[in-house]
Amino acid sequence: MPRICFSCRISSPFSLLIVEALRYGELCPVQSDAELVRAVKDGQPEAFAALVRRYERAARAVALDVLHDHHSARDATQDAFVRAYENLGRLRKAGAFGPWLMKITRRCALNIVERMPRKKAFDAAVACPVGSANGPLDEEKRVLLAAVSKLPESEKQVVMLRYFCGQSVRDVAEMLGRSVGTVTKQLSRAHKRLRNILERWHK
Question: How far apart (Å, rounded) are the C-alpha atoms in residues 46 and 51?
């Protein structure tokens, strides 16, 4: 597989890859994950930049769900993309890039937790995330995100990916390796839990 520059990890995270992604997007129509993966394997590293642009926010949400710290989540996300690129040849089903990347991201985040001092890891585990990847959230979203953090793990993941990252139900199902029906049910249950949580907080 061709080499790709990940020096952006040190200066401006993903900046070089995003530039390549934008340039690549101007030269070709929208492609599926499978087509992009095959293009990378065929010697077009710029196709991987398009995958970075497509999945960076979703991967950041998965890492943030584990770490509850934006700086650490960014590091985990960058590590995940590096590992995904280096191991892309092991991905047998090209169309399964999304779920595969999410698993790698979660593993990278957990590795960071394991390297943390015990107290810091504990603080990260119980902290409530109060920001977004692009900066502080307004008060309404802060409250909503705090409520989301109270959901069961499976429901919290689908809510984060669906509403905070803007992924479709089908995309969420593919990323998490669940059926569309399962994700739909989990979203429905999460809505009811969130409504109850918010009603209790506003009494």
Answer: 9
Quote the domain boundaries for residue 108. Answer: 1-127
Mean pLDDT of the 111-126 span: 59
Tracing tokens 């890859």 back to the chain, one arrives at: 17
Structure tokens at 76: 């985990």
Domain boundary (93, 127, 161) is at 127
- Please name the residue ranges forming H helices in the chain: 15-27, 33-41, 46-67, 70-86, 97-115, 118-126, 139-148, 153-159, 169-176, 180-201
Q: What is the pLDDT of residues 18-52, one digit of tens each?
A: 444 444 444 445 788 899 999 999 988 888 998 99
The tokens for 131 are 């920001």
Domain final residue pick, 70, 99, 127: 127
The verdict on 85 and 138 lying in the same domain is: no
Q: What domain count does the chain have?
A: 2
- By CB atoms closer than 10 A (0-12, 13-18, 19+), residue 115 is exposed
131: phi then psi, degrees, rounded to nearest 5: -135, 180
Residues 66 and 33 in one domain: yes
